[in-house]
Amino acid sequence: MSDKLVIADREIRSRFFVGTGKFQNNSAMMSAIEASGAEIVTVALRRLDFEREKGENIIDALDPEKYLILPNTSGAATAEEAVVMAKLAHAAGMPKWVKLEIHPDPRYLLPDPIETLKAAEALVKEGFTVLPYINADPVLAKRLEEVGCATVMPLAAPIGCNQGLQTKEMIKIIIEQSNIPVVVDAGLGAPSHACEAMEMGADCVLVNTALAASSDPAGMAKAFSVAVEAGRQAYLCGLAKRGAQASASSPLTSFLK
Fold first, then answer.
1. Is there a contact between 228 and 194 (Cβ–Cβ < 8 Å)?
2. How far apart are alpha carbons 66 and 75 in whole angstroms?
3. Is 231 annotated as belonging to a binding site?
4. Is 25 labeled as ligand-binding?
5. 241-252 b/e with 16+ CB inside 10 Å = b?
6. 3-state secondary structure string, 78-94?
7. Rounded CA gap, 173 and 178, in Å?
8. Where along this sequence does the record place binding of 1-deoxy-D-xylulose 5-phosphate (predicted)?
9. How many Cα neighbours within 13 Å face the side chain of 190?
10. CATH no. of 5-237
């Protein structure tokens, strides 16, 4: 069964994206990334200092031949800030891809829909491949698709909360209406959460905190990887419909006749 994931004309082998924040050290981070099988790895631009010596930044541990390093604009409070961050990252040699994050609220870190749409329009015109992080808002998701974003990345729950699919019904609508890949991002705290998102028809999931906060990041990354594959396979095969009452798996009708 052919099941290719293509983002901006690039075929992506893994449907599991991994973030790089909160790990105790680079060794734990790399162990988790390797165990995950991920191809796309996100890095927060605010955590990088491009003037530091080589080997002192997180991205120095990532082989650009093996991973697509996806810079994100986490920490940007306005569209203007996000656009500047993306341009600086590209000028420093990073790919012209960007995970667009704009969240001025420091408590819940919820994305600003107005500034996100504004920044997406500007970055697409500049030739960036834009993957915007958004609230689970079907209307906004369609607007971002229309301006040329490569994916939409609706949150399952607030960043780092590990609550799982709190926005499930809205994500279902986004998946139904979308003509571009849907990446469920933020709030997935257990492999079962990732599996459920994939069973719904999400194209990918992105996980960070659940791996970094685990006592065994590499083991947890492997567990998530297996869950993502299982969820995708279940979606492709078609889940059995839920019933309101019991239905015998071995009916006696023919035997009695």
1. yes
2. 27
3. no
4. no
5. eeeeeeeeeeee
6. CHHHHHHHHHHHHHCCC
7. 8
8. 160, 186-187, 208-209
9. 6
10. 3.20.20.70
Would the annotation count 162 as a binding residue? no
Locate 106 and state its tokens.
Answer: 């420091």
Query: Residue 36 in contact with residue 220, Cβ under 8 Å?
Result: no
pLDDT digits (tens, 9 = 90+) for 62-120: 788 888 999 999 989 999 999 999 998 898 888 899 999 999 888 888 999 999 999 99
pTM > 0.85: yes or no: yes
19 is in an annotated binding site: no
Domain boundaries, the chain: 5-237
**What would the two tokens of residue 245 be?**
């009452």
CB 199 within 8 A of CB 235: yes
Residue 92 token pair: 């420093």
Positions annotated as catalytic residues are 99
Write the pLDDT tens digit of every residue in 36-51: 999 999 998 876 555 5
Tokens of 212: 């970094």
Q: Are 130 and 123 in contact (CB under 8 A)?
A: yes
Token reading at 38:
């991920």
